[in-house]
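Morning!

This is the sequence you dropped in the shared folder:
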Amino acid sequence: MADIDEKTLEVLQKMSDVLEGMKSKEDLHTKAPANFHTADRLHGFNGMFSSSDIERDVINAHMRPEGIGSVLPLMPTIDENPLFASLTGFGEYAGAEPTYVCEDAPTGYMKGALLTARFGRVRRDTDTIDMTQVMRRVNRGDMTDLILRGSVLGLSGLTPSGLDQSGILDIVTKSEMITAAVMAERKLLEMMWQGSFAIAGEFPGLDVQIATGQKDAETGVLVPSLDSDVKNYNYASVANTLIVEYMSMLEHYLRNNARKMGLEPVTWVWVMRPDLWQEITAVWPLAYHSQKGALLNGLNATVFLDGRTNVDERDAMRQGRYLDVNGNRYQVILDDGIYEKNNITTAGLIPGQYASSIYFVPLTIAGGMPATYRQYLDYRQAQPNVSLLQGHEDFFWTDNGLFTWAISQVKWCYKLHLLTEQRVVLRVPQLAGRIDNVKYQPLQHLRDSDPDSPYFKDGGVSLRGVNTTPYAVWTARA
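The structure's back. Tokens below.
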């Protein structure tokens, strides 16, 4: 019986220890308005940049993402379920042509459709910031006048514009806010293309909007007159003249739509991943000038191509980020958010081969009307309600209401929570197109800004092992 009691006491003691541990964690959660990970220290003991021998210039090696968000207009709204109307055509009733002038003739009717859009929500937080720690330094050798050479924000147009990187190496709160902004930028960049309304918090991306099978927003009736032009390249290599055929036909098809719909002039851009752009420009001058060359060779014709001219055209395209298609010059946008297939995700691709889509996106139509743009929930419109809090609110907004920051604070610990609700709107899907499954094989894949990519690189440390207990008469050291 004594043995049983001892075992029972041992179990009870373990349970007590667990409960005490849970209580301490509960206390931490209550006292610290955050998770248990505190903000990285920039200076002071264990600070990232507290080494006394550090040079003043700090060189950036963080890869900024880039994408179409940098060229899309950004518009505020408070409408949750917008309806965008299109006149889709004129139908004709069955009826015979009249024999006599006063007999009834065939009649017609006009048809229209409604499209809609949905918000997606992106939330990111800072780590817990301890006010009693942020100003510390180890000693006079802990320099706080560091200068960051390079930029961590600014290529995608998806981050708070009010955030600048001055002080990012010295001011913990600024550093934490920029870290949250970088994480939000990555998510928004992905959602711009890959976003799915079926996934909680996401808005429908351009991948599911530049598509066939368009539907009326209220009835679900198919509206083929609003379908985009979607082509399948079937994993053929980009390194041949076929890519010129596909892109030229897609451009010609959509330009014909715009002309006959009376929507000209239209401003389009080609959008693709950076690695695919490099491979296209390597072959485009030769492929463009020798298009249909096989047919000509079948007629015993000769095509003369100048190597120097081809190289000059290739270099000009790369430097100017443009592409000439059917005699029209278009801006090219490089976008890291476009989904890329590889040998792990897709059968038929071997290591070193990739496949993704090329997009032809209308930015404006006749009269300069925006055709593709971003909308955001304008938090400024909450002001009549917020004003009733009489200065006790724990949040603020920036960028004309595009982003809002909430503050959690308990005693001397605080953290910030970033929130934005956005969507991308394609008003004229019938003027947009894409070519799927374009295969390319670069000599070397570029570094990626996505942490989930095998081509993402960071490294280094968040805390540095500085001796926090110096020798002194009052220490326990020998």
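Headline: The first strand starts at residue 57 and ends at 59.

More detail when I'm at my desk.
O.
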